[in-house]
Amino acid sequence: MSTAATDRTSDLVPGEWTTISRLWFRAKLITMAIWAPILVGLTAIPYLIWDTPWLLLFPAAVLALFVISLPLEYLEVKHFRYMVREDELLVRKGSLNRTTTAVPYGRIQSTELEEGWIDAKFDLVKVKFVTASDDGTVVIAGLSKNRGELLRDEILADAEARRVAL
């Protein structure tokens, strides 16, 4: 099925959990592949200067953190869901500790559509919803650009309509 076919307005049916793109995991892998050698190299500098073997523990620890984070990143992408409801947006995330955040449309103050340079290679965006609560911002990352724009526009229209009704 083409991307255009999966990004129709009818896909944003209220009451259905929607997953994010699996390409988001690939984008995260590329980001990690860029940062891992840089950070391992920087933490290896003290060893290169003082030639003390125990200083190799720092780059080893950094590398271990990157390796451990791989399955965690995969699980984050796999278990992330959002639901567009009639009067609120639900965001569910987490694999071990699941949290569900409900964002009433009337509380949304603004939205942002972000696209990093790695995200752009995969045609992915992050949609940020800034709310009037203490938590402040809800982020849905890993959406195709078309779906992100559609979600932003639909929710902004609902939020505006609810603010005008107040």
**Rounded average pLDDT:** 89
**What class would the helix/strand composition place it in?**
alpha+beta
Order of helical and strand elements: HEHHEEEEHEEH
Low-pLDDT residue intervals, each spanning 5 or more residues: 1-10
Question: What's the number of extended β-strand segments?
Answer: 7
Which range best describes the helical content: under 10%, 10-25%, 25-40%, 40-55%, 55-70% or over 70%?
Answer: 40-55%
Strand count, sense and barrel status of the largest sheet are: 4 strands, antiparallel
Distance between the termini: 41 Å
How would you describe the shape? elongated
Q: Classify the beta-strand content into a percent band.
A: 25-35%
Number of helices: 5
What this model shows, in words?
The chain is α+β, with helices and mostly antiparallel strands and 166 residues long. The chain is built from 5 helices and 7 strands; from the N terminus they run H-E-H-H-E-E-E-E-H-E-E-H. A 4-stranded antiparallel sheet has the order 1-2-3-4. Strands 5-6-7 form a 3-stranded antiparallel sheet. The longest helix is centred in the N-terminal third of the chain and has 28 residues, at 23-50. The protein starts with a helix and ends with a helix. The model is unreliable at 1-10 (pLDDT under 50).
